[in-house]
Amino acid sequence: MTGIIRFHETGGPDVLRWESIELPEPARDQVRLRHTAVGLNFIDVYERNGLYQVPLPGTPGKEAAGIVEAVGPGVKYVQVGDRVAYSASGSGSYAEARVMQSDRLVKIPDDIDDNTAAAATLKGLTAHMLLRQVYKVRRGDALLVHAAAGGVGSILVQWARHLGAVVIAVVGSAAKADMVRELGAQHVLLSDDDWVAQARAITGGRGVAVAYDSVGKDTFMRSLDTLRVRGMMVSYGNASGPPPEISPLELSKRGSLYLTRPTTFHFTGTRSALSKAAQELFDLMARGAIKVQIGQTYPLKEAARAHADLEARRTTGSTVLVP
């Protein structure tokens, strides 16, 4: 039997339950993976609370690291004993083990440990999408990064600095501001201050090239006001709730802005795209250009506590659940 976190109804963290299930044998192109570390992401919260609808009972989790224990017919990317990580469009990583498609797995380099791989794969691939595909950051571009002390935000800051961008980071506390400065952000603003005016002042009144907003409702409209003419608003999260509905005229009158709501899995849907993005991420990690900040770990059985802390913004960097 395999231990697993499931929820039978949507709601608060208390709907998460520890249960046991029997895993099937891997079918064609599938593997059985024993998890060693599981990454926590805000999308797990959105599925648990019903913002993103999933079939019930559901098991949260879209990234993890582990060891391949068995392979089905036709598997060609991995073999038994490999250390692997994944970022999957389907949920289910909050488990001691799972059966899944082999083409979503990437081998973990020897110089990266399992906790780091589990903390970085989905978040790092998200950062790759945001900086290298949705908007191709160029040296000297000014960027606004919300939740810059979080799992994705902390990687975004470091990767953007590696690319030569001017990073304007927004965080919720002085302690988080110190952390983000250490990651390389040239300008760090507090979310309780007038960060719109401050961002415009930093850019000489022009505005930023792109705003990365994972907060949603509380920051969306003001993020638009930080953009330069023909700047890009990238909404990729809903930590404070879904963003408001917006008329296209709002984009026009603010300077012919671009607005997008990307999903990582649309940019890593093919094996070649996944492999290329993962290779770039792991290379930068190995070179020290990106240092993954694991702020806290929890036993997998205490996933409800981890969710509560994440939603209350008591976490910094990435969070790992240990089976």
Brief overview, please?
31% of the residues lie in helices and 27% in strands. With 323 residues, it is an alpha/beta fold. It has 2 domains: 2-121 and 269-322, Quinone Oxidoreductase, Chain A, domain 1, CATH 3.90.180.10; 139-261, 3-Layer(aba) Sandwich (Rossmann fold), CATH 3.40.50.
Please give a handful of descriptors for the protein shown.
single chain, alpha/beta, Quinone Oxidoreductase, Chain A, domain 1, Rossmann fold, 2 domains, seven-stranded mixed beta sheet, six-stranded parallel beta sheet, 31% helix, 27% strand, globular, oxidoreductase, NADP, Quinone oxidoreductase, ADH-like_N
Tell me about this structure.
- Keywords: NADP, Oxidoreductase.
- Residues 11-321 form the Enoyl reductase (ER) domain.
- It comes from Steroidobacter gossypii.
- It holds the Pfam family ADH_zinc_N.
- This is Quinone oxidoreductase.
- The chain folds into two domains: 2-121 and 269-322, Quinone Oxidoreductase, Chain A, domain 1 (Alpha-Beta Complex), CATH 3.90.180.10; 139-261, NAD(P)-binding Rossmann-like Domain (Rossmann fold).
- The protein has helices spanning 42-49, 114-134, 151-162, 174-183, 195-202, 220-224, 248-253, 264-267, 271-286, 303-311; strands spanning 2-6, 17-21, 30-40, 63-71, 83-87, 97-101, 105-107, 142-145, 166-171, 187-190, 208-213, 227-235, 258-260, 294-299, 318-322.
- The chain is built from ten helices and 15 strands.
- Helix 10 (303-311) links the parallel strand 14 (294-299) and strand 15 (318-322).
- Helix content is 31%, strand content 27%.
- The chain is globular and about 60 Å long.
- It starts with a strand and ends with a strand.
- With 323 residues, it is an alpha/beta fold.
- Strands 3, 4, 5, 6, 7, 14 and 15 form a seven-stranded mixed sheet that branches.
